[in-house]
Target: DNA polymerase II small subunit
Amino acid sequence: MPLESNARIAKALAQRGYNAEREAVTLLAGAADPAAAVAAAVDHAPDDALRITADHVRDAIADTDRSGVAPDETGESPVETKGSGAEDAARVEPASDPTTDTGAAAAADAATADTSATGGSAVDTTARDTPTVDPAETPDTERSRDPDLRDLSVGNDMTGHSTGTGEYSDFVTTFRDRYERLSKILRGRVNHRPAEAIANMPGGSDAAMIGLVNDVRSTKSGHWLVELEDTTGTFPALVMKDKGLADVVDEILLDECVAVEGTLADDAGILFADSLHFPDVPRTHDPGGADRHVQAALISDVHVGSDEFMADAWHEFTDWLHTPEADPVEYLLLAGDMVEGVGVYPNQDDELDIVDIYEQYEVFAEHLKEVPADTEIVMIPGNHDAVRLAEPQPGFNDEIREIMDVHDARIVSNPATVSVEGVEVLMYHGVSLDEVIAELPEEKASYDEPHKAMYQLLKKRHVAPQFGGHTRVAPEERDYLVIEDVPDVFHTGHVHKLGWGKYHNVLAVNSGCWQAQTDFQQSVNIDPDAGYAPILDLDTLDMTVRKFS
Model:
């Protein structure tokens, strides 16, 4: 019977500077004397080895058996574990009407938090020292994690499939694909006619058009002129100020796909709009769920290499992952910015603890080794990572992937859809949130409530609808930024603010960061929510936010 859990074995190896194959960890945990087996496996590993393999372990155990070393009868682990009690948790309760876009997280359970979380913003819990548990006082019980029960797959990963050359024709192809796929969603709501067909219709006719927004401007009379473009041409629609559509017009971004219904003017030169439609998420969306109790940790923006990287908070988080309380946390989903990067913003060198980008990833990999080895890890890049800035971003080059080859982590593109035991999680780093927040009214999108900006992306069914602004877009044969299938969970980062809520039964989570406020962030008035880890129940889609700083 194993005397140690797989997680403790993995942590013991990580403390010695080694990653390990899962089979190797299992063999060590099942050894008569796991501590002696770990030491022997390390001794048998070649000097240049970074990973303990199953063969290393088998050779070590065979030699130990031949030497006649008696097993340790105590079964104590040489590894200390840390855990935070239930009082450190803040529970997310769904809004009273989860189908509306007013949903933000309800107040935290008073029995499990010092202060309440309001409006889906950061949980304002008081930081605590996480207690150290003596291994001798901790029962050596098996973690109830069975890898055979897991089900994880990745969709919409464009890594290795980039086709764009930056030519004008590539951009045309991308926008045609965007139009075709999003217009299909809208065709069931309006009786669409192409622009050239509408231009030939008689004045006074009822008409509807689906198109990408080519221009939005206000008139001298206070109305709005919206110019739509489809594959046949452009056509203008006039939204009168007395139609009650001002709130809808306020949400329109250039280049997004919308539908307009109305009546043609007498000269058929303009469409007087009666209604506007976004592709949107159906209010009847029924999210999936795991058929067992299992959890995923949703984090982002670690920023290793910054002199403000919160290493102590990270250690508390990974220590907690090794406790029985965190036993159900079998997945870790990391939404970009693993490292601080180099040359990302002016005078960044003054705020770097590690100035070499490759060394930043090497140190990040060491921190990732602290996570239990049997955890399924999925990572996407962000704008601070060493990939192209234009989206979609492929999942790193081979050299950096090799550096981050820890616990068989899956490194995929930004964005990507991860199917986790029946729950569809859309992972997107979130650069376009800056643009949404800048363009829309504060009550619709703000840094203090980043989940509301995420609602807008869900409504538009595109993670970066506006082209030519802050968000750079790479032309591909397929627009990988379209949200074609409705996710159950939408996970982003980038803005360093914690916020969550439900929009039409889709849980939107922006997971904060692991970097304290830098001088640059202070200069642009960013007060980060750092050291938080949202923990998602995959069976119920309830969420707990834990604070480790």
